[in-house]
Amino acid sequence: MRSSEIPEVKVESGSVFNTLLRSRVSPGLFAIGLLVASLCVLLSLFHLYTASIGSTESYQTRTFVVSLAMIIGFLLYPTGRKDWTSPLNPGALVDVLIIAFIVAAQIYVWYQMRATQGMFIAGMMDFERWEIWFGVVYVVLLLELTRRCAGWPMLLIALLFLAYVLFSEYAPAAIRAPSTSVSVLTRNLVYNVDGVFGVPVGAMTDYVIIFVLFGQMLAAAGAAGFFTSLATSLTGRQTGGPAKAAVLSSSLMGTISGSAVGNVVTTGSVSIPLMTRTGYRPAFAAAVESVASTGGQIVPPVMGAVAFIMAQLMGVPYVEVAVAAIVPAALYYWAAFLAVHWEAKRLGIGGIGDSAIPRAGPVLLQGWYYLLPLVVLIAILWRGGSLVQAAAIATALAFAISFFRRDTRITPARLLQVLESTGRISVIILVVAAAAGVIISVVTTSGLSWRSLSLLVSFADDRMWIALLLSAVVALILGMGVSTTAVYVTLAAILVPALIQMGLEPMAAHLFALYYAVIGLITPPVAMAAFAAAGISGSPPMQVALLAARIALPIYLVPFIFAYQPALLLIGDWSSIVIHVSTAFVGVFMFSSALWGHMLVRLYWPERLVLFAAGVMLLSPWYLGALLGLSVFAFILLTQWMRRPQAGAERRPVRGGRDA
Fold it and tell me: What is the pLDDT of residues 98-109, one digit of tens each?
């Protein structure tokens, strides 16, 4: 449509409130649904309160939030039933007992914190045997809920670490250590701020969930429609315009949603059919969307949940992490843009029809206010303001701007849906973060981090590239079936310290781990973001995953580039930053061009091989290699220019043909 109007906001289909209002359920299920929705709203309001006014004592806050998330989780993912809407069965009694135990555990924590005036978690108390087993049951329930929420891979990794710390005296010699007793392990996991309720949960409670609420509020106000219309107006007329619009809109939405799979489902339902209608293969369209949606987790200013954990682990302001991520994020989307451009050239796909492209001026005129929350957020952070209060102010502003249009107003009913959806999303985030806390506690309790450090250093023999390659392989393997948070936390606890000891810049080491934790979502054989996009396009999941990996192939090199050249993280003098950033963009251009076989005109195979090698040289941190790469690039560009007049004589590619 040519109209610049912002599409009407759609009500979320998974809303519990929506299900209660529009579906006929039994009185028992109605009561469960009402309880779930109410607790989700309570969880969201609690975080809005702590963000606006200030949090209470950390251990009490974290235990309350995790316990509340576990109660909601066992209601949403009940025993022996598909979900809360399934008919009740005897397993409901098991859930009642589980919830009663969690409530009792929370009351016990509150009582002990008040009675002992903090000595409860200060290591100054002896615990009775029943208290130890009380903690064991709590951890077991947490891990079971992790399985229900996040799947088996996350559970198996946590169990592997627990098995190691309990039986480490029987481990291979390189990582052998005295075994830890159940009593000591439970004290560290449960009755301590460094275990289940450690840094990951702290980051989620203090920062991430308020940003989830911000993203949900902004989306409910109609931002998704604005970003899609804006992206289409800016790129729609270009070669491969629909795919470029998808890349741009997904990056804009991804930076406020922080969820790759959620972003695929949100923007992919519109972008994938649009790309398919204009000539792209369904599998390629799905691959583009999965790559674009995944990258949202590394796009400032909001990024994904892991960035907040990184800032806490490094002990630096979040703004430093966001600034360092600017160039790597730009290189990520530069590679994605180039891939869709070359594919469009190969298939002869032009832009969207003029009648279907909204004009940028009217789009901005009608929806400029959607940029206000992001601008205010960036301004507050840039001036050194509180991250949490900045998010709270941006959330309030997102709510306010919804009233600029009649059809986007967040009414009381829709506000409840926003709070409820935020609570449901937060349940999975908090449960996974608590399970990640188990991994961190095990690593510190057993001394595995120091043993892994010495093992990696000795194996790599002070050769940084080997250490980086091993770290990348581990991250990709973990990232295939585990959340980004869990992958990053595992790497930050075990491998990142070794990389730093070998001389890597701390910011580069942590961003290296984050980057590969994110890329794992589009890496076969288990590429969750690609599989979600495949479901929308109706394509074979593995075909989509392989195409996504091909699109992202230049992206796999980016972490190695900034590991060797911190100038890409905006660290160092400006002359070095300008030179290395420029050569990195040209290097990705060359690498992508060689990969897809097109530049000004179609590339011959010898040209592709030479250009591929030159691109790798240009991406290297050494000036001589970069100079040689630029020389090769200039030569091939010249030969391409000379062949350009004859390009019209080439056979026009057939849409849907095989890859070059």
Answer: 999 999 999 988
